[in-house]
């Protein structure tokens, strides 16, 4: 017959076992996210993921360079499970440093176009785009005709001498665009194009994309490059001065009759040393859900990455971006061109 003491010991052992299992389960319900996205609307996405799955998100915020530096410093001891970066060039650079691991997901393969992901390798795909933004041309309609800025190639046309403004040529947004242009035109023509853009500049590159739009509105520049979400922010702004800026400029989605407008991504990857790999893949698949795609599109004025998904955004529609032709150059090709294009920029004097 089992004594009361023996029964108590047995029950205690069971309770201990259950407790340990509960702790392990609790540990499994964690996701450590390193994010370069600093948009308040993303908070709703994260909260919804946690409520839906029970997986708690611990987030570290930094810029892309800071996140990459931290991952390299932490090495195998890094707690990071998922990495969010905001540019294909940056994704490709981090991937080339061995900071991501390949994953396989039928859901992601079905949802995200191949040109918005890393090229498949042994073990799967290392990074995936989840939202896109177009790099468009803004111009002063009092000085420039729309037909004169219908393509990226026309930015090098002597007709625009002294009119072109951009941020730094080495900024990832421009570097990604230039890398895809070189991919299309070839090295010789690509470098000649970059030299022509430099020859047409109204001033030395400076500031961010919003500064370029405002410089066109003020008359300092006639033409500038910008990502679409900067345009949308000014359109939706509550400040009269911002809306006044947009009344003075026009927007062109370049290369609609040829190769399509350049698009970049915000993307995600599973960290090389992820301790919660299954949770990380589940989160990546969540980012491709209609719910998350809607927040990408309407929260930060981006475009959905999921095939065939259209999200209504009045600001995007106002600039003519609700139905444009996007280029299909694989963003993974950016990686192999980046160093070469940076050397081209140095040779032509593109600061």
Low-confidence segments, given as residue ranges, are: 1-27
**Strand portion:** 5-15%
Assigned CATH superfamily of the largest domain: Periplasmic binding protein-like II
Number of helices: 14
Q: Kindly, what is the distance between the CA atoms of the first and last residues, rounded to a whole number of angstroms?
A: 87 Å
Q: The CATH topology of the largest domain, please?
A: D-Maltodextrin-Binding Protein, domain 2
**What is the string of SSEs from the N terminus onward?**
HEHEHEHEHEEHHHEHHEEHHEHH
Largest β sheet strand count, sense and barrel closure: 10 strands, mixed
Number of strands: 10
Q: Give the overall pLDDT as a whole number.
A: 89
What is the overall silhouette?
A: globular
How many domains? The number is: 2
